[in-house]
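User: Please predict the structure of the protein below. I'd like the answer in structure-token form so I can feed it into my own downstream comparison script.

Assistant: Understood. Taking the following sequence of 94 residues as input:
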Amino acid sequence: MQFDAEHIATELFLECPNVKLFNFNKYDIITNLDNYRDKEHYSAQINTKILEWIASGDGLITKENYWDRLKEEMNYYLNYDYDSVFSKEAYPES
């Protein structure tokens, strides 16, 4: 499962003193399609926000918080209402 791979990779990277991991869990940004310039890339405005968060340490993953952050992420994605993305309201021209 995707989460198992992320869990293992996170634990391995946290052992490296020269690596910093970030996980922003900003679901209001992730799910707002207006924040993307194409299907895979955030807009310049969001890229700027991400750089600001990194500079301030917001979203930094540590040995103390990584498991809680991963559980939050798992809970969000496993319980997301994916059907709503394909609803008539989301795509009225369909």
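That's the full token string. The chain has one domain: 2-79.
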